Amino acid sequence: MRPGAIIPATAASLTSLTVTMAVMCYLACLAIGALILVDRAVTSWTSGLSREMTVQVRVVRGADIAQEVEKARAVTAAFPGIIEVDVLDEKAGEKLLEPWLGTRSLAGLPVPRLIRVVTDTENPPDVSALEQALSQVKGATLDTHQKWESELTRMARALSAVSYAILLLISVSAIAIVIFATRAVLQANRHIVDLLHLVGARDSYIARQIDGRFLRTGLLSGFIGVGLGLFTFLLLGLFGGGSESGVAAASRGLLFSTPSIAIWSYGLLFAVPLAATLICLITARVTLIRRLGVIT
Fold this sequence. Notes:
Blueprint: H1 12-51, E1 52-57, H2 65-77, E2 82-87, H3 90-101, E3 113-119, H4 127-134, E4 140-143, H5 146-188, H6 190-198, H7 203-239, H8 247-255, H9 263-295
Antiparallel strand pairs: 1-3, 1-4, 2-3
């Protein structure tokens, strides 16, 4: 018959530790998932912005807007490094202004005409020369989207820094929780520890007997947290889309589409149980050795 464990698996401190660590692991998975989704979203947005430019032709007094648009199209299409030129209709420009001006306020306004330009990434055009060529067209300006790209990159860095800070706070909190749980376990089983000391058991032996409980607690709470995290991402992918149109719908569709996270991304998520186990095991072992020395 195998002897019973020094610390029973149903100890209240270990049960509370399992629940608390599972919540911490779940929050860590959400932070890691946020990093992955932000990285995917910004990469998708910036890749589109870097491949495209926009020519805007404003309404100028004394000039035929249709002729100027055609001139801008011809100049852009003939320029080296341009692979596609698409003249957008008037409704496209109006739709871009609707979120700010509404639909009723656009009647009679001189809405600029837009030309979508797709560049060759392997042989990009000379932007300065293209701007010089478009200066011959009345009211024409070239937008390279560099400002928007820099803003998106800055936003991604800020969100990544916040996510890393959250992960750091979660790790520190988990270490503190394990320390308190370890002290509570020793205090609740003080009589057993004293008895083991009386029969000549060393501190390292007692610590090894208790390590297994914290090892299983870390693994269990880690996998519970990952499971809850994956379930949350699945729900966001299934029910996160909205019926609205425009930029909001594109953003929601990109961030909350059905998860197609790469293998390395899943590896980051499943590193959470390993990290939780190491935190539980190492923190508990150090705390046990120090507290057992005090008790002795």
